[in-house]
């Protein structure tokens, strides 16, 4: 099997498996001349900070193209299209690239990542001056080397987690389980069943379908809007590669007594163990009382109604435990490619400490633990840290230490205690909101950190701000005193086929 890398200007076929192995840092650099040059004007502050680096890219183009085609059939409010086209409209919103071949999707994503990097780099050039600190090999107007995009090994049904809403369907039925379409502001939101979406596996749709049957049998109302009352809320379904399935039902308790809540929980359990829902063959079923859009386990505990409390995944030779509240990359096979890329770029060795910031269930650090002297992980979600500790113990990994809490609070103290001259490789993989300023400051001001791998699923907006703060000239007013980092390499890894999203792995050194 081969993958055509023409979108990267490389007009030759390379075997697919070659993108799967650990990338060599030397090999990655040596391909830099293959990318054509393309000059760009530097963007202004607001463009970068407001995240417009990616605005108006392919999602926009596809949506616009689709809208143009639909203009003549515009329907009045609430009078929607017939059922089939509701599904098509949902697919255009959730998976806007679904009409394209996967090769075309990859080409678009690669171009989008290139544009983001070009804008970022021209901005950094402006900040640092032409002879500033961005001295890495050049390619296509980029100071860093942009590698070809690594494709997802699985293209359809790759999601291991889906979140289904409950609301009025196109036919007006308020107990429809699916995905939202429309806008709350315009008051035209409908909930459309998702069984045609290319990224959702059949198993998730099956559980959603039976959840809908449960709701329709129930005398309890759904909770459509918080201020209007009602009980039934979201359904989350998680699966692993072995087909084990965890379902989490969120339920607004309103004024129900503990006894009344117990009746509801018993009804749900009965439905999924002995009733029609038994065909879903759930491995575990959780119930969460939820009075907010999202509740953590601390805010409202996940209550196990039956089955195994955790789901497990085999990845990079490790058995990994995943709790209901823990983050896990939604495309398991793609995550493996992502983590291999991170591992290779990190250049860790037995003399380095690996700092895994925003570590989730700890997979990045744990997979690199055998190659490094120590792993220090920091993660906000308690259940995820418990998972990381369990995974370390189960897999016999003893050189890892995981800290629970906000990285902005923990990291400065942790780095102070590691000032013994040992080199530290930092890996950051923050949520979309990017890194807290204090985290950037701590990394920048720690001389032992010479290598930084930044993984971002949204490299514009806050991440662009983070990067600027990591790479700008020293600024005492902002307490950014250490030597600036230099962006060396960028590797896009596609974890989200049919959508415009893509992970970008950035290697900085200084
Ligand atoms: C994109 S996930 C990455 C997780 C992990 N590195 C992985 O690949 O599975 C981001 C993680 O950052 C955590 N997080 C968010 N804000 C944080 C903070 N202020 N301090 C520490 N962790 C945080 C989230 O709970 C989540 O687990």
TrEMBL record:
Pfam families: Methyltransf_31 (PF13847)
Alphabetized CDD domains for the sequence: AdoMet_MTases
Basic residues bias (residue ranges): 65-78
Binding residues for S-adenosyl-L-methionine: 329, 379, 429
Region (Disordered): 65-86
E.C. number(s) listed in UniProt: 2.1.1.35
Catalytic activity as recorded in UniProt: uridine(54) in tRNA + S-adenosyl-L-methionine = 5-methyluridine(54) in tRNA + S-adenosyl-L-homocysteine + H(+)
Keywords: Methyltransferase, S-adenosyl-L-methionine, Transferase
Catalytic site: 457 (nucleophile)
Domain (Methyltransferase) ranges: 349-427
Gene3D superfamilies in alphabetical order: 2.40.50.1070, Vaccinia Virus protein VP39
Family the entry assigns: Belongs to the class I-like SAM-binding methyltransferase superfamily. RNA M5U methyltransferase family.
Protein name: tRNA (uracil(54)-C(5))-methyltransferase
Species assigned in the record: Vicugna pacos (Alpaca)
Gene: TRMT2B
């Amino acid at each position: 099997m081969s993958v055509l890398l023409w979108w990267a200007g490389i007009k030759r076929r390379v075997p697919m498996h070659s993108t799967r192995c650990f990338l060599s840092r030397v090999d990655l650099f040596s391909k830099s001349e293959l990318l054509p040059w393309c000059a760009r004007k530097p963007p202004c502050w607001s463009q970068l900070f407001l995240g417009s680096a990616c605005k108006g890219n392919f999602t926009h183009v596809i949506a616009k193209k689709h809208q143009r085609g639909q203009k003549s059939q515009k329907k009045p409010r609430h009078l929607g299209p017939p059922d089939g086209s509701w599904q098509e409209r949902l697919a255009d919103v959730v998976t806007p690239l679904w009409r394209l071949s996967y090769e075309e999707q990859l080409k678009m994503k690669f171009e989008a990542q290139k544009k983001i990097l070009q804008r970022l780099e021209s901005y950094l050039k402006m900040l640092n001056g032409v002879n500033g600190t961005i001295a890495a090999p050049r390619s296509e107007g980029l100071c860093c080397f942009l590698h070809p995009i690594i494709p997802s090994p699985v293209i359809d049904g790759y999601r291991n987690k889906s979140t289904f809403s409950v609301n009025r369907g196109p036919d007006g039925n308020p107990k429809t389980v699916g995905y939202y379409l429309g806008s709350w502001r315009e008051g035209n939101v409908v909930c459309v069943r998702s069984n045609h979406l290319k990224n959702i596996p059949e198993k998730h749709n099956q559980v959603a379908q039976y959840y809908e049957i449960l709701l329709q049998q129930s005398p309890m109302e759904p909770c459509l809007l918080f201020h209007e009352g009602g009980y039934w809320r979201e359904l989350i379904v998680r699966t692993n590669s072995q087909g084990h399935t965890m379902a989490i039902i969120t339920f607004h308790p309103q004024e129900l007594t503990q006894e009344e809540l117990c009746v509801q929980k018993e009804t749900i359990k009965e439905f999924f163990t002995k009733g029609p829902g038994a065909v879903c063959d759930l491995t575990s079923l959780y119930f969460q009382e939820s009075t907010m859009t999202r509740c953590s386990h601390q805010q409202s505990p996940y209550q196990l109604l039956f089955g195994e409390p955790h789901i497990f995944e085999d990845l990079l030779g490790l058995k990994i435990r995943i709790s209901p509240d823990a983050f896990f990359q939604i495309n398991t096979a793609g995550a493996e490619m992502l983590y291999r890329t991170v591992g290779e770029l990190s250049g860790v060795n037995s003399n380095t400490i690996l700092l895994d910031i925003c570590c989730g269930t700890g997979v990045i650090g744990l997979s690199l633990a055998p190659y490094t002297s120590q792993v220090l992980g920091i993660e906000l979600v308690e259940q995820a840290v418990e998972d990381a500790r369990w995974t370390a113990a189960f897999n016999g990994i003893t050189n890892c230490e995981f800290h629970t809490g906000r990285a902005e609070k923990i990291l400065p103290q942790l780095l102070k205690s590691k000032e013994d001259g040992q080199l530290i490789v930092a890996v950051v993989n923050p949520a979309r909101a990017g890194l807290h300023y204090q985290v950037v400051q701590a990394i920048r001001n720690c001389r032992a950190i010479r290598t930084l791998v930044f993984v971002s699923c949204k490299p514009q907006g806050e991440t662009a701000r983070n990067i600027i703060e990591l790479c700008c000239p020293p600024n005492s007013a902002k307490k950014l005193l250490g030597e600036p980092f230099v962006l060396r390499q960028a590797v896009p890894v596609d974890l989200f086929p049919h959508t415009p999203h893509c992970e970008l792995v950035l290697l900085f050194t200084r």
